[in-house]
Amino acid sequence: MKAAILGLVGGRRKAALFTAISAADHPSGSGLTVASRLTDDPQVTVAVLEAGFNAEDLPEVFVPGLAGTGISFTTLNWRYATVPQTNLNGRTLTVNAGKALGGSTIINSMIFPRAGKAQYDAWGQLNNDSTWTWDSLLPFFKRSELFTQPTAFQTAQGVRFLPSVHGFAGRVKVGFPNFFFAQSALWRKAAESLGFPVSPDLADGDPHAVGVAPNSLDATNNTRCSAACAYYTPFAGRPNLVVITNATVSRILWDMSAANAKLTASGVEYITNDQTFTVNLSKEVILSAGTVGSPKVLELILQAAGVTPVMSLPTVGENFADHAHSWANAFTNITLTKDALLLNSAFAAEQQALWFQNRTGLYSANPRSLGIAAPSDVFTPTELKTLLEQAQVNLTRFAEEFSNGNPALAKGIAAQHKIALELYQQDKELPLEMNVEPGYSGPTPFNARPARNYTTINSVLYAPLARGRTHIVSADPLEPPAVDPAYWAHPLDVAAQVGGIKLARRMLVAPPLDSIYAGEFEPGADKASDSQIEEWLRGVVASDNHEVGSLAMLPQSLGGVVDTALMVYGTANVRVADASIIPFPVSAHLSSTVYMIGERAADIIRRGDT
Ligand SMILES: Cc1cc2nc3c(=O)[nH]c(=O)nc-3n(C[C@H](O)[C@H](O)[C@H](O)COP(=O)(O)OP(=O)(O)OC[C@H]3O[C@@H](n4cnc5c(N)ncnc54)[C@H](O)[C@@H]3O)c2cc1C
């Protein structure tokens, strides 16, 4: 989610020094969360190092409807390129990640639900630690939130919420938009007609249902609330919170003389305008550079190509996973869609003026009605039985293949798969997010598609079994790493994503959404069979920018990199707090989980847990 923070400054009683680097569909969420919470204590000084700049004042950041426009997907985006994806026709995909104070929360789509209780419980189970389960983590989710209750208008639009699962005194402003597209309600009803229950709240730990997702939004003025908005701007005047932007962390420095069996960080080196600077630490480093950025910094010092390793942690950068995005879209016979903004520039200008005058209209929010599908929504019982039997038979083979030759990680991935398959069996796994886009979403650029209005059902692979890796390719800290999400490397992932397109098609023609259906555009009538859909998907599947797992919180015997106090194994004072520690892909947009990690990290550090 956000950017890196580098704590630094010493000399005070409890000075905490770090490097937090973060990013986000969302400056780094967790990094700024930790820095903000720790500096509530005036005796603690934190330095935050961020490679990007403070972009809070840019309209493409604070106006929800401008997300993804202007420089938000160029200058404010690392745009990590994957290595050619073997299972996707050798294509090189882009994994987007925010490069600004606040990380990906600056450029993300602001959708703010949570994953399933069973998945957070599995996280704790893998770590033999009940403090990393839903019941124990819920207070930290709530601690991050400053929730605005829905208005009567929003409730009439279908918004539901349970006060008991939200926080009302935190820092991330969460709420609902004041504009809703007609497709949203029609789609929710269509999903209900296919058997999806209505969710009382998509953050309640049971997202197998449909509802209106909350947004990371200041509902009082309809502006984005990023990690910078939540955790930095209100506290920018603190003398003990030092934020250095345009600062790319190049390595952690170690005190090789420390009489400690564990490695002790003594400082952090960073580069600004081709010059190298050092921050000296008196306490610790917190790495929050994101799932690609954090392993890169660790590898630069641990085991990088051409760099003398100071310790051996062979699973740094391994166990990487990402959600994979796909779509089915149809022409629609209504005209008030997001497409209207592209088709009619005068209307778009009018709507933008409306937002700036009244904070309403089509640019006022990124509303998203969504639901998470269970296996029974995607597969017939026979299909599922066959797929699970095959996955079970091949469990060890895939775990070994994905572990890159590391025996401990092979055990760790096998343990993850075992839990996932059990959840599949119980119909509690959550393999796909289905959500409605009130306009075109898909692989075809504006100028290459019919100039019409569309309804899109996004279908996102949320519980992939494939695991890949991200590793540096050079000792140059400014070189991008080689990112390999290994999309579709497991047959169950392929089957689920194909099943998602079939489910999306059923939704597009289910009543009452069928009332606006004017024919399918993509995949298109010529992609009728499973194999035709699969072939089409191999050419178009994209990253959903929800990468996790590269510095996994797992026991070392299972190939983990950090322990349950977020400390990197073998170090005395280097912690990680970002999406890279999430041990396996959870079925949700990640920012709420990343803020939870930041809140939990601050709590652990304050208590002095090691
Ligand atoms: C386009 C997009 C849309 C998304 N949509 C949603 C959504 O709607 N809802 C949702 O919940 N999630 C969404 N996400 C995902 C979510 O925002 C991220 O998963 C989350 O923000 C990750 O947080 P993080 O702290 O792990 O990393 P990041 O937020 O990526 O933060 C890492 C930070 O570290 C900085 N950094 C990296 N390397 C260095 C270095 N060497 N030195 C200094 N700084 C460095 C980066 O610039 C960045 O600021 C989206 C992500 C993207 C990219």
UniProtKB/TrEMBL annotation:
Keyword ATP-binding: no
InterPro entries, alphabetized: FAD/NAD-bd_sf, GMC_OxRdtase, GMC_OxRdtase_N, GMC_OxRtase_C
Cofactor(s) of this protein: FAD
Active site positions, chain numbering: 546 (proton donor), 589 (proton acceptor)
Keyword match Membrane: no
Source domain of life: Eukaryota
Keywords assigned: FAD, Flavoprotein, Glycoprotein, Oxidoreductase, Signal
Domain Glucose-methanol-choline oxidoreductase N-terminal: 98-121
UniProt cross-references to Gene3D superfamilies, sorted A to Z: FAD/NAD(P)-binding domain (3.50.50.60), Glucose Oxidase, domain 3 (3.30.560.10)
Sample GO molecular function, one term: flavin adenine dinucleotide binding
Residues binding FAD, per UniProt: 249
Family listed: Belongs to the GMC oxidoreductase family.
Designated name of the protein: Alcohol oxidase
Source organism of the structure: Mycena belliarum
Record lineage: Eukaryota, Fungi, Dikarya, Basidiomycota, Agaricomycotina
